[in-house]
Amino acid sequence: MLNLMIVDDEELIREEIKSKVTRLAHPLIGGIMLAADGQEAKQLLHDFKPQIVISDIRMPGLDGLSLIRDSFQTSPDVKFIVLSGYGDYEYVREAFKYGIVDYLLKPVRLSELENQLNLAVQLCLDSSSKEDIKATTNLSISEANPINSQSHISSKSLIGIVKKYIEERPYGEVTLAEVSNLASMNYTYFSTWFKEETGFTFSAYIMRLKMEQAKKLLENPTIRVSEVAQKIGYDNIYHFSRAFKNYTGLSPKDYRKCTNII
């Protein structure tokens, strides 16, 4: 999990951005810490090492630009997203020299925050993967296969988060585009990675979850087949019956008979 720090001398802005990050509920963002100025943020960077920082560019005392310069020397892997006003262009341009992810204009829009946060998370994952490759394979990054280069521990942790996200939502309402976005991977990369980790394509994995849930529901004789279909995301009972038979070799009614549930 990645930790995030929000730095702004205005409490209302800090809390507003925290609230928006919380609403986005990114599965790889864990703790959120707040700092009222650059000096406090510098100490938190040293003590708690957040991987992502959303920081105002202009603040009293140690400003955001100075914080970024300092972090560039001491914690170069930290990903900064800069908060700026319309008159801060020169500061933002200087910040880009130190490798910031991007900047957000105040007031921050939720969609723009989501895009920048996803990008920052992906950059963190890319950096982590590169370190894993260097430590375990002695291969140059350019020679490594991006799928095979994921560390075993990181991949297992991430696939666990992805599975949990899928299983906590109503079957039929989770799309590949949605989950790949939440995992901060592009559509094609995620599809390949997901199959490597689970042994199933995304659609086959979802179908398996649906059908296994249907089997459990069918074991309850008080639930009609049409209700089972609806509970796992099928509006049409005939489509459900066909899918269930393709999966199990039996129609829902025959499955109940074979399991003596009638």
Write the layout of secondary structure elements.
Blueprint: E1 2-7, H1 11-24, E2 29-35, H2 38-48, E3 52-56, H3 64-74, E4 79-84, H4 89-96, E5 102-105, H5 110-136, H6 152-167, H7 176-182, H8 187-198, H9 202-218, H10 225-231, H11 237-248, H12 252-258
Parallel strand pairs: 1-2, 1-3, 3-4, 4-5
Q: What features would you describe in this structure?
A:
GO terms for molecular function: DNA binding. The modification 4-aspartylphosphate is found at residue 56. Pfam families: HTH_18, Response_reg. This is DNA-binding response regulator. Residues 3-121 form the Response regulatory domain. With 262 residues, the chain is α/β, with parallel strands linked by helices. Among the domains are: 2-121, Response regulator (Rossmann fold); 204-258, Arc Repressor Mutant, subunit A (Orthogonal Bundle), CATH 1.10.10.60. The chain has twelve helices and five strands. Strands 2-1-3-4-5 form a five-stranded parallel beta sheet, with helices on both faces. The protein is elongated and about 75 Å long. Residues 133-153 have low confidence and may be disordered.
β-strand percent reads: 5-15%
- Element order, helices and strands? EHEHEHEHEHHHHHHHH
What is the name of the CATH architecture of the domain at 2-121? 3-Layer(aba) Sandwich
Instruction: Please write the CATH class name of the domain at 2-121.
Output: Alpha Beta
**Which spans have pLDDT < 50 for at least 5 consecutive residues?**
133-153
Helix segment tally: 12
Structural class: alpha/beta
Approximately how much helix is present in the residues? Answer: 55-70%
* CATH H-level homologous superfamily name of the domain at 2-121: Response regulator
Radius of gyration: 24 Å
Task: Give the biggest beta sheet.
Answer: 5 strands, parallel
Q: Give the integer mean of the pLDDT values.
A: 83
Keywords: Cytoplasm, DNA-binding, Phosphoprotein, Transcription, Transcription regulation, Two-component regulatory system
Domain Response regulatory: 3-121
Domain HTH araC/xylS-type: 156-258
Main location: cytoplasm
